[in-house]
Amino acid sequence: MLKICIVGSSGHFGYVLKGLDERCKITGISPGTPEEDMSKLEKALLELNITSKRYEDWRRMLDEEKPDILVINTVFSLNGKILLEALERGVHSFVEKPIATTFEDLERIKDTYWKVKDRVFFAAMFGIRYRSHFLTAKRLADEGATGEIRLVNTQKSYKLGKRPDFYKKRETFGGTIPWVGIHAIDWIHWIVGKRFLSVYATHSRRHNLDHGELETTALCHFTLEDEIFASLTIDYLRPHGAPTHDDDRMRIVGTKGIVEVINERVFLTDEKGHREVPLVEKGQIFEDFLREIRGQGKCMVTPEDSILTTEVALKARLSADTGRIVQI
Questions:
Q1: What's the CA gap between 96 and 89, in Å, rounded?
Q2: Are 172 and 75 in contact (CB under 8 A)?
Q3: Which of 28, 83, 143, 194 is buried most, with the most CB atoms less than 10 Å from its CB?
Q4: Tens digits of per-residue pLDDT, 166-219?
């Protein structure tokens, strides 16, 4: 039986609840900060008839419960600090992205992970990889449908709604590029498989509906090795009347064809024409994470992926803050 503890209720703990099986048990939950609202998690556990002990201090929870797995999804600026402690304690972690909101925290995580990587695993919550449309795009690229990839365009568009107060401060939120844009950075890294070399980015806080320092729009231009270019547009301006909360898109341009992900559908254009491609079966990230922990397979999201994409996202944020090209 794997013992699982959860810190916080501010991220995508839903991945965990959907991936649980009879060999897992959530034994403890705790807020990351005294003021964190835990009601979403508590309600979700109640609906699933899951009973776990409530702690007010996550360190005490780790001391007493000694979990096999720690789920970290609290105020974003704390996720990296808690991950660092989990690594030091030898606890496997499923952690909200970005895994750190500062370069200093990221460097400490890197240093500690290299020391314990033979016995401790962690993965960022890049669950969008596991959706059918992105798995299909990945399969097409791997099978050579695009030929040599030369250009990638990505889009992340969300409804803003009313966000918790910690979104209103860069110090606690971390920024829209690392929070929202990191997903598309992950797609680029995962599908293209080439090294990021530099980024030039811009972002704006205008029209953020009194959300303080939260950026509502951003644009990133990445240069990868072999003169491959990738773009990322991010916005929190998706209208309330839109049929879905998010609008994720990707366009992969290669020497033999173009793959497009739009409205959860996948299209291929090549010398045979333009057509929709049947979707492969979706996956589930926490189930994949559990297979890794149990030695039954390899998780598609690795600690190295989680570190790299966080570094790229933080450097894109730095570029947008400073108005200059940043080397990666």
A1: 19
A2: yes
A3: 83
A4: 999 999 999 999 999 999 999 999 999 999 999 999 999 999 999 999 999 999
pLDDT for 93: 98
- Collect all residues with Cβ–Cβ distance below 8 Å to 256 and sequence separation of at least 6: 144, 145, 146, 147, 148, 270, 271
Say yes or no: do domains 2-120 and 128-283+311-327 share a fold.
no
Q: Two tokens at 296?
A: 């039954």
Cβ atoms of 237 and 207 within 8 Å: the answer is: yes
What pLDDT score was predicted for residue 172? 97
Q: How many CB atoms lie within 10 A of CB 282?
A: 12
Low-confidence ranges of the chain (pLDDT < 70): none
- Top-level class of domain 128-283+311-327: alpha beta
* Phi, psi of 14, deg, nearest 5: -60, -30
Q: Counting Cβ atoms within 10 Å, is residue 97 exposed (0-12), middle (13-18) or buried (19+)?
A: buried
DSSP code per residue over 280-303: PPP--HHHHHHHHHTTSS--SS-H
Superfamily of domain 2-120: NAD(P)-binding Rossmann-like Domain (3.40.50.720)
Residue 113 CA to residue 90 CA, distance in Å, equals 10
How many angstroms separate the most distant Cα atoms in the chain? 62
